[in-house]
Design brief:
The chain is mostly helical. Helices cover 72% and strands 1% of the residues.
Length: 355
């Protein structure tokens, strides 16, 4: 058969199968007797179509799973961030509590040391620092007194004078040589002034002050009992053989600066104690003051005589301070219970005001 005839025959067959403007014949699945190859192809197509039907839900499920996983990851990330923030906040709070605890411990330790310096001082610097306890008590009393007077219609300042190391100085038994050398002053130049009021106001002041002092009486009374026992030991040490053995050197030093001459004539006697030496030195300042010396003259005298005092006092003061420091350790050990009670009283009354 020629090629063109074959083409025309194929066209006729196609017209019978796919008539123009007609519907497609119904689809029939091939049986086992008809073309295996065609059936295989159609089966493959059918499987592809079936695969498409179930692949679509799988793809959708996978997309949903991805979204869920992303949301879960985001929640996990947020949870981790919140957990980290919470942990950081907790760490900050713990650090703040630790700092507050340490600050409180430092304050309590400072107040405990102040109690020892106030009632059992072994050196001049300790004695001067310990006077701050008295100043703190007086400051509290002043504030309470001012409130009491205001309730009765009287108004006074509730602000104490600034603390001054030299305000309560004891230069005869507890001289603070470093302070004296630095400031060129034996005692505070300001001093402590007692208030004076008209009679009616003074009566109210006295009543209010007595009330203000009441809370601190137990502390000061217990401290005074310990203080009295300690100063008995101080007096014994400063009259002991080692300290007395340093008196001749003290006299020799004073002689280099004019002893026995003084503003009132000759000294009444030899130097037999450190207090005699202190009296001789202070006489030059007191004598000039009683004669009406100018401020500049008194300052010049103070600069000179504080230098003399520190120079001559160092050897003998060094002797007794070493002995007193040793005695202080033993005394505090023997009286540990009383010291603890004082510490507790001081903390309850003056806590958070230590240096």
């Amino acid at each position: 058969m020629k090629t063109d005839e074959r083409l025309r025959a194929a066209a006729r067959d196609a017209m019978l199968i796919f008539p123009p403007d007609g519907e497609l014949p119904p689809l029939r699945l091939p049986d086992q007797a008809r073309g295996y190859r065609r059936a295989g192809v159609r089966a493959s197509v059918s499987r592809i179509r079936r695969n498409r039907f179930w692949l679509a839900p799988v793809a959708a499920a996978a997309a949903v799973a991805l979204v869920i996983a992303g949301v879960a990851a985001a929640h996990q990330s947020a949870d981790r961030a919140a957990s980290a923030a919470s942990a950081a906040s907790a760490a900050r709070r713990a650090e703040q509590r630790a700092r507050a605890t340490k600050a409180l411990q430092r304050q309590q330790q400072a107040l405990d040391a102040l109690v020892v310096e106030a009632f059992v001082p072994a050196t001049g610097p300790q004695y001067d620092l310990g006077s701050k306890l008295t100043w703190m008590v007086q400051a509290r009393e002043l504030a309470a007194t001012a409130r009491c007077m205001a309730a009765s219609g009287y108004h006074i300042s509730d602000q104490p004078a600034p603390f001054d190391l030299a305000a309560f100085a004891d230069n005869s038994q507890m001289p603070d040589l470093p302070r004296i050398a630095q400031t060129h002053e034996f005692v505070s130049s300001g001093g402590i002034a007692s208030p004076s009021f008209p009679k009616a106001e003074q009566n109210v002041f006295n009543t209010c002050q007595a009330k203000a002092r009441a809370p601190y009486q137990a502390l000061m009374a217990a401290g005074q009992t310990l203080d009295d026992s300690w100063w008995t030991i101080i007096s014994r040490i400063q009259a002991s053989g080692p300290v007395q053995a340093a008196i001749p050197a003290l006299t020799t030093c004073a002689t280099r600066y004019g002893f026995p001459n003084d503003p009132y004539g000759s000294a009444s006697g030899p130097i037999t104690s450190f207090a005699d030496f202190m009296d001789w030195v202070s006489g030059f300042l007191d004598g000039a003051g009683s004669r009406g010396a100018s401020t500049s003259t008194l300052q010049a005298l103070a600069r000179h005589w504080t230098a003399v005092f520190v120079t001559c006092a160092r050897p003998i003061v060094g002797v007794w301070q070493g002995m007193q420091l040793t005695a202080q350790t033993r005394f505090l050990h023997r009286n540990a219970s009383q010291v603890r009670q004082l510490d507790q009283l001081a903390w309850r009354l003056l806590g958070h005001q230590s240096r």
